[in-house]
Each structure stands twice: as structure tokens, then as C-alpha cells.
Amino acid sequence: MHADERRSVGVIALIAMIRMFGLFALLPVLSLYAAELRDATPLLIGLAVGAYGLTQAGLQVPLGALSDRVGRLPVIVGGLLIFAAGSLLAGASDSIYGVIAGRLLQGAGAISATLTALISDATRDEVRTRSMAVFGVGIGLSFMIAMVIGPLIAGHFGVRSLFWAAAVMAIVAALMLRLLPEIPRPVRRASWSIVPAFRADLLRIDFYVFLLHAIMTATFVALPFLLTDRLGMALTDHWKIYVGALVVSLAIAVPMIMNDHHQGRGRLIGLAVILIVAAQLALTFFGFSSLPVFLALVLYFAGFNFLEAGLPARLSVLADGEVRGASLGVFSSAQFLGAFVGGLIGGRFLGQGRPADVFFVCALMGGIWLALHGFGNSRRQQK
After folding, report:
1. What would the pLDDT profile of 307-348 be if each residue is shown by its tens digit?
2. Of 56, 87, 163, 240, which sits with the fewest C-beta atoms within 10 Å of its C-beta?
3. Residue 73 belongs to what domain range?
4. Is residue 111 part of a domain?
5. Is 189 inside a domain boundary?
6. How many other CB atoms are there within 10 angstroms of residue 262's CB atom?
7. How many domains does the chain have?
8. CATH classification at residue 378
9. 54-107: per-residue pLDDT in tens?
């Protein structure tokens, strides 16, 4: 990888990490916070957790296509400023509806696809898979840090402080764009059509990331209540189980990521989904004591971090260069639509008063994923 490529990948990955930290840090605490707000119901709690996914999903494709036409940087700067405004609105709100409105505005700063496309613009084909893997690992690292720091900050300074921090970090991320070397503009598209982004091989990856984030968001609607109500853990102690599980999960996830190219993504994607399903079943049937919950989180984080890094890397290789922004926009739309749907699922089943119901539904979604993945592999082998 050339020096400019390394610099570009490093800066873009760091910008994505900073922005996603603002979202991820809220994930393990927001449902507990939302439950205390005025007008809160279980369904609205789930909506508050996943609402950002609705506007993210709706805007990824048009903003990805817009970035193909007018350039990546203006779209990224605008998205970061909108995200900061949404963070401020949510942090200033005392009702569940105000937080939902702020989360929707956060999601309107939909730049994930544009950041991914910018990495593709900045790297050659022969190093693009490695570059996207670095980007994905960076997002995974942001997730890991946020899972630990989020409950600590919320426990000592309140959840509102996480919204303020997210706004500040979005501004910092926008300023960091000045550190980028000059990146060649992509070939300007003659058409705004996104039809080429709906190829069957791309849509399969899109559906995978939809399920990944639906399961993740639903899980984190219910998991804080499990830790607090069933295990008796104070919010300030939640980080302890997260940090232990995340560190141990690296022993599984890192070798999977490193061997991805050699073993074949089909096999390892299936293995990662099995880990997630096993984790959800463990939380469903054994989520009444600390050790089974800890082991379940180890399996979940290992599978999630592998897929979070591997799926965008796979898509960036498959996507045609001239519609890469739109293709990655469809991918990101599926990702965040999954987050929105997962929030609704989590809120709906949490309303019955049993977090285990949420985890069981997540296991069912994982089972559907495994079945479709196995069917797709058999079809490709027959061809």
C-alpha cells in the first residue's frame, strides 16, 4: 500500500470511528435512559434506540449517488453537521418524542456509504480488500471501546453527556478531513440510476447486513434490562462484562478476519452466524446468571465483529467502480434499515416484560439467515 493510500485509509477510518462511537456509546444505555423519559412505552423505547436507522436507510442511496456526482467531501461535511445537530436536539430533550426526533436527525447525516466509497476512490483494486478490512476493523474497534466507555460515562455524568460528546466528535471528524491527501475524483456518472446496484450478488450481501444490524439493535434494546433486572448489575458496572467479553472475543474474531481470504468468505460467514445464533439461544435459556451471559456475549461479539469487517469488504470488491457510491449506499441503507426494524422488534417483544423473548426472536432471525446462506451456497456450487 502506497503512503498516500495508507494515510487516506487511516484518516477515513478514524473519522468513521469517531462518528460511530457517538452512536455505539449510546447503544448499551439508551433503552434504560429512554424508559425514564416522559411518555415512554416499550415500543417507543425500541423506536428511540433504532430511529436513526430509518433516516439513515432512506438517505444512504441518494447521498451515495449525490457523492458520485458532486464529490465525497461536501456530502461528508454536511452529514457530520446534521448528525451534530441531531445529537444536540436529543440531548436537550426531556420527552421520549424529543429523543426520537433527535435520533431521526442524527440518522439524516447519512455518510457511511460515502466514507466507504471514498476509501474505494483512494485505493487501488489490488489493495482495496485490505483497505476495507482496515475500515471495518476500525468500526469494530470503535464498537468495542464504546461498549466499555459508554456505560462508564453515562453512569457518572448521565446519558445526556453522551449526546453532547457525539456532537463535539462530529465536528472534530469534519475538521479531520483536512488531513486527507488529494484523492482523485471518481468518474462522474452520466445517470443517477441505481439499478446496477441491485444485482443479485450485491443484494445477498445487503440482506446479510440488514439481518446483522436488526439482531444487534434488538439485542441491545433488551440486554441492558437483562443486566440490570435479572443480574442485578448497576449501570456503572455494565462495562465490566462488556470489556471482558470483548477482549476474549478477539481470540475468535481476529483469526477469522485474518483467515477470511484463505478459507473463503462463504464458510466463515456461516460460522459467524452460528456464533450469533448460539449467543442468542444462550441469552434466551440461560440468561439468569453471569457466566452464561458472559460466554454468550463472547460468541456474539466474535461473530458480529467478523461480519462488520467482512461484509463491506466483500461488497466493495463486487461493486462496479462507476456505481460504487450507489452500491455502497444500498448496502448502508440495508444496514440501517435493519437497525430501525431491530429497534421495533426489540420494543415490541420487550413490552411483554421478558427480555428472553427478544433474544429468541433474534435467534430465529439468525436461523433464517443460516438457511438462506446455505441455500445460496448450494445454488452457486451447482452452477
Report:
1. 987 887 777 677 766 666 667 778 888 989 999 999 999 999
2. 240
3. 3-179+197-382
4. yes
5. no
6. 7
7. 1
8. 1.20.1250.20
9. 998 888 778 877 887 788 899 999 999 999 999 999 999 999 999 999 999 999
